[in-house]
Specification:
The structure holds two protein chains of two kinds. Chain A is an alpha+beta fold. Chain A is built from nine helices and 20 strands. The C terminus of chain A is likely disordered. Chain B is about 75% helix and about 0% strand. Chain B: It comes from Pseudochelatococcus lubricantis.
Chain lengths: ~400, ~270
C-alpha cells in the first residue's frame, strides 16, 4: 500500500480506559474500502469497546478515528455514516418490522413512497416478506436478526459494524446467516467490521482477521495467515493449536535447532529464535501417528515425538488419540493427535509433525513480557514481512 | 359426593371468616359513605337512614355550594401540578436512569427530604415565604406546594420507567442517524410512556388529596376539595362530607384501572433501584 494513501477507515493510537482500567492500548488499524474485517478475541479483550469507539459511542482518551480521510474522533454516532448491529438486535418493540427498517430513511426525510419501496426491497432481499406489519415480539430469533440487519442496510451505510450478531442464534441458522451477511456485504460493497469470539465464524466471513489480546492487536492477517503463521503463542492457541510442549534448542545458522529430549528427536526449524527454552504448539490434526519404531524422516525438519496412547475418542470423521509423551517421565505431556484409524490403548506410538504444521515460540519465561515495546516492535516487523 | 368432601379444605371456615372480615373492613366504610350521600335523615339509634334523597347533591352542586368551585380548583391545581412535576421529572428521571451517577441513590433520597420533616413545619414556613413574595392564596402558589410533594413520586417512577428502556435501543437509533433528541422522542419516550403515565396519575391523586399545604398556602382565597370536606366534616354535615369524599374517590378508582391496564411489572420492579 502507498504510504501517502490512508486506509478508508483508519485508527491510529486509539487508547480507551474505563476509570483506571486500560481497555484499549494504542490500537493502529487500517481497513480498506469494501473490506470485511473480523475483530476476534476472548471476552474482555476489548473488541466490543473497539467497535463502539469506531461507532462513536466511546470517545478515546488518545488517538484518532478517521473515515475517508476525515477525522471523526469527536463526531457523534449519528453523523458518521455507519450502522451498528447489536448482539441483542435492539429492535424497537413499539414499531412494526416495516417501521423498524424504514426508521433510518424517515430520519433522512425520504418520502413515504420511497420508504415503502426501499423497505419492500430490503424485506425481499432478506426473506422477510409478509412480516412487515408484525411487531418484533412475534418474530423468531433468526427473523429478528434479519430485521436488525435490514434496518442497518436500509440506510446504505458506508461502514457496517456488527457486534456478535450471530451469537444468540442456534447453530444451523447461524451457519446460513454467516453466508448471507457475507454475500450481501460483497454485493453492496460495504466496509464491514465484525466482532466475534467464534474463530470459525471469523475465518469463513472475513477478508482479514484482527486478533485482540488484552487491548492490543496480537496479529492481523488473512484467515490463512493467522491460521498457518500465528505471530505468537497466544494467537496459535486461539487459532486452535492447543497442544503445547516445552522444549529447548539453540540458534543455528539458518534457523533454530530443537535439541533431542526425553521424548523428542532433534529437528531444525526456520524461525529465528534465541537459544533457550521454546514453546511448541500444534493442532490435533497436524500430526500423524506411526508405529513406535518408525524411522525418523530424512529431511531433518520433521518433529518426531514418542509416547503411548492413553485414550481414544471419535468426534466424527477421524479418531482422536490422547498420547502420553515420555515413558513415565515426570515432565512428560499429553497431546491430542488425530488419525484415520483407531490405535489401541496402551500402544507405543510415534507422532510425526511435518514442517509448517507446528509453531515454535520463545518459552513464556524466557520471552519478554507481551506488553513490552520490544515485543510489539518485533510483531510489527513480522507483519511487514507478511505483507511484503 | 366423596370427591367434593375430599376437595373441601378443612381450613375453609377460618379462611372464609378472615376474608369476610377483610372485605368488611374495606367495603364497610365505603358502604356507609355511599349511604350517607343519599341519606336525607339518619340519626341514632337507627341502623339505616330514615329518608333517602338527592337534596344534598343539589346543595353541593348549587352555585352557592362552593363544591363546583372547589372541584374546579382542585382539578386545575392537580393538572398543573402534573404538568410541572413531569416537566421536571422527565429530564431528571432520564438523567438518573442513564448517566452512571455515583450519587444516584443520594439524589433519589434527596427528593424524600420534604417528606422527612413534619408537613406542618414545612408548609407554615412556605406559607410565610409565599406571603412575602405574593404567592399566598394563588393557584400557582398551591401548585408549587403540591409539586414539592408530588416530585418524589414523579422522579422515582420516571427513573424506573427510563431505566426499563434498554440503552441499546436508543443507541441503535443513534447509529443509523438519529440525533440524541430525536432518539429520545422516537424511541425512549414512547417506551417509557406507561411508566410516566403512572407517575402522572400518582401525582394527580396526591395533589387532589393534599390538605396541609392547600390549607396554609391556598385558604381562604383558593378553595380546594379536601378543605371543603374538612369544613363539612367538622361542621357535622356528613352528607356533604360524604359526597365530597365520593368525588375524591372517583379518580383513585380510575387510577387502579389504569395501573392494572398499562403498568408493566418490570417498570414497577425498578422503582427505587
Amino acid at each position: 500500500m502507498d504510504a501517502s494513501e490512508r486506509p478508508f477507515l483508519d485508527l491510529t493510537g486509539v487508547t480507551v480506559s474505563y476509570g483506571s482500567t486500560r481497555v484499549l492500548e494504542g490500537i493502529d488499524l487500517g481497513i480498506g474500502k469494501g473490506e470485511f474485517v473480523a475483530l476476534l478475541g476472548a471476552s474482555g479483550c476489548g473488541k466490543t469497546t473497539l467497535l463502539r469507539t469506531i461507532a462513536g459511542f466511546i470517545v478515546p482518551d488518545a488517538g484518532t478515528v478517521s473515515v475517508g480521510g476525515h477525522d471523526v474522533t469527536r463526531l457523534p454516532p449519528d453523523r458518521r455514516g455507519m450502522a451498528l448491529m447489536f448482539q441483542s438486535y435492539a429492535l424497537w418493540p413499539h414499531m412494526t418490522v416495516a417501521q423498524n427498517i424504514g426508521y433510518g430513511l424517515k430520519l433522512r426525510r425520504q418520502s413515504r413512497a420511497d420508504i415503502a419501496r426501499r423497505v419492500g426491497e430490503i424485506a425481499a432481499m432478506l426473506g422477510l416478506q409478509g412480516l412487515e406489519a408484525r411487531k418484533p415480539a412475534s418474530l423468531s430469533g433468526g427473523q429478528r436478526q434479519r430485521v436488525a440487519l435490514g434496518r442497518s442496510l436500509a440506510v446504505d451505510p458506508e461502514i457496517l459494524l456488527l457486534d456478535e450478531p450471530l451469537s444468540n442464534l442456534d447453530a444451523r441458522i447461524r451457519l446460513s446467516l454467516r453466508h448471507e451477511i457475507r454475500t450481501l456485504q460483497q454485493r453492496m460493497g460495504i466496509t464491514a467490521v465484525h466482532v466475534t469470539h467464534d474463530r470459525e465464524e471469523a475465518m469463513v466471513m472475513a477478508d482479514s482477521i484482527v486478533i485482540l489480546d488484552k487491548g492490543r492487536i496480537a496479529q492481523r492477517g488473512t484467515p490463512e495467515e493467522v491460521y498457518n503463521r500465528p505471530a505468537s503463542a497466544f494467537v496459535a492457541a486461539f487459532m486452535g493449536a492447543e497442544n503445547v510442549l516445552t522444549l529447548s534448542g539453540s540458534a543455528s545458522g539458518e534457523g533454530f535447532a530443537i535439541a533431542p529430549g526425553p521424548f523428542n528427536a532433534g529437528c531444525l526449524v526456520p524461525d529465528l529464535l534465541p537459544t533457550g527454552g521454546v514453546e511448541v504448539r500444534f493442532r490435533a490434526e497436524a500430526g500423524t501417528l506411526g508405529p513406535a519404531d518408525a524411522p525418523p524422516p530424512e529431511d531433518g525438519r520433521t518433529l518426531r515425538l514418542a509416547g503411548h496412547v492413553v485414550s481414544t475418542s471419535y468426534p466424527g470423521g477421524i479418531w482422536r488419540h490422547a498420547v502420553r509423551l515420555g515413558e513415565g517421565a515426570a515432565d512428560g505431556a499429553t497431546v491430542l493427535v488425530d488419525a484415520p484409524h483407531p490405535v489401541a490403548q496402551g500402544q507405543a506410538v510415534s507422532v510425526l509433525l511435518p514442517p509448517d504444521t507446528f509453531f515454535v515460540f520463545p518459552a513464556a519465561g524466557d520471552a519478554p513480557p507481551p506488553a513490552s515495546d520490544s515485543r510489539s516492535g518485533d510483531r510489527r516487523r513480522r507483519l511487514e514481512v507478511q505483507q511484503a | 359426593m366423596s370427591t367434593f368432601l375430599s376437595r373441601l379444605d378443612p381450613w375453609w371456615l377460618p379462611r372464609a371468616l378472615v376474608l369476610g372480615a377483610l372485605a368488611f373492613v374495606i367495603f364497610g366504610p365505603l358502604a356507609n359513605l355511599l349511604l350517607w350521600t343519599v341519606a336525607e335523615k339518619w340519626y341514632f339509634p337507627h341502623a339505616l337512614p330514615l329518608e333517602f334523597g338527592f337534596s344534598y347533591w343539589e346543595r353541593v352542586f348549587s352555585p352557592r355550594g362552593n363544591a363546583v368551585e372547589s372541584l374546579t380548583n382542585s382539578i386545575v391545581v392537580a393538572l398543573l401540578t402534573v404538568v410541572l412535576s413531569l416537566t421536571l421529572a422527565i429530564p431528571a428521571g432520564y438523567a438518573l436512569a442513564r448517566l452512571k451517577l455515583p450519587l444516584r441513590g443520594l439524589v433519589l433520597l434527596a427528593f424524600l427530604i420534604p417528606q422527612a420533616f413534619p408537613n406542618l413545619t414545612v408548609y407554615v414556613n412556605i406559607a410565610r415565604l409565599f406571603y412575602v413574595v405574593g404567592l399566598n392564596g394563588t393557584i400557582p402558589g398551591v401548585v408549587l406546594v403540591h409539586t414539592t410533594h408530588g416530585l418524589v413520586y414523579a422522579v422515582w417512577i420516571a427513573t424506573a420507567a427510563f431505566a426499563a428502556v434498554d440503552a441499546e435501543l436508543e443507541e441503535a437509533a443513534r447509529s443509523i442517524g438519529a440525533s440524541g433528541l430525536r432518539a429520545f422522542f422516537d424511541v425512549t419516550l414512547p417506551l417509557a410512556l406507561p411508566g410516566l403515565l403512572a407517575s402522572a396519575i400518582f401525582v394527580f391523586l396526591e395533589s387532589l388529596d393534599e390538605f396541609t399545604g392547600s390549607y396554609f398556602v391556598g385558604a381562604p382565597d383558593v378553595n380546594m376539595l379536601p378543605l371543603l370536606l374538612y369544613t363539612a366534616g367538622a361542621g357535622g354535615n356528613y352528607q356533604i362530607a360524604s359526597i365530597t369524599a365520593l368525588l375524591l374517590l372517583i379518580p383513585s378508582i380510575g387510577f387502579m384501572l389504569v395501573v392494572e391496564r398499562f403498568l408493566k411489572v418490570d417498570v414497577l420492579a425498578r422503582v427505587g433501584r
